[in-house]
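User: What would this chain look like folded?
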Amino acid sequence: MIADTSASQAKPDELAAAMLSTAWTVAQQAGDAAQVTLREVHDIDEMHQIQRLYERIWRTGPTGTPVTADMLRAMAKAESYVVGAFEDDVLVGACFGFFGPPARRTLHSHIAGVDPSMRRRHVGLALKLHQRAWAMQRGADAITWTFDPLIRRNAFFNIGKLAASAAEYLPSFYGPMDDDINRADDTDRMLIRWHLGSPAVIAACETNSLSRDVGRRPAVDPMAHTAAPRILEPSRTGRPIRRESRSSTLLVGIPADIEAMRLSDPALAAEWRIALRETLGTLMSEEAQVSRFSRDGWYVVERKEAR
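Assistant: Here's the prediction, encoded as structure tokens.
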């Protein structure tokens, strides 16, 4: 269930109007499937609820909160995206973002979070599809955001399921962050660009609003890619194995659960951070493209030409 409170939007042409109508329809379907209501938040008390929700998710406490209620209030007043997902009037998820150049054509989605109790309800998907329709209604062509490229489920959700593009590798982007998710690890991030009207994104959104387990691209079976060299993969003991290759197609693997590794073996998790930065980060700085990400943990990377 979705309530859009916007008004006085510019009239789009017939094709854009049809695309926008479909975007709201698939967002509605995703919200209904997750059994949540998604709506813009303007009340300061609910903004405090978002602040506390984020503190619970990232386990920070008030002094390290990811965002304050007064900042959310300012962003909402400036007509940025501040939306909550509610189950029976209880806040269970939230997302906020702000516009960037040129001329509000791109929305940057800064933080999205869902209460751990709602895991597997696909509230995150409902939030992203709502955000897409909301941004399209305001004339945006793309949404950007960042994620930790070592977290497998997020990589698959962003690249495999939403059909977003990996745009840039950002070493230590946020600097030190003292919370129980990052645990003082370097905050390397992948910048994602979601081209809202591309055929691949349209197909992914329409498919996934109804079926939660179907991604835009099938999960990649590593054995089907024996011709593509694995230049980074976990060893039997979990350590990163790195190799050199001149191939134009490369496989870059990541651990199954880097968050658990940060708890059990912080030194090994830090070793993985450096290994991924020096492989995938270097490749992307040389204009290699991530073509897909598999459910079982492989970035498939295409170089423009063999080195």
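The first strand starts at residue 2 and ends at 3. If you want, I can go into more detail on any region.
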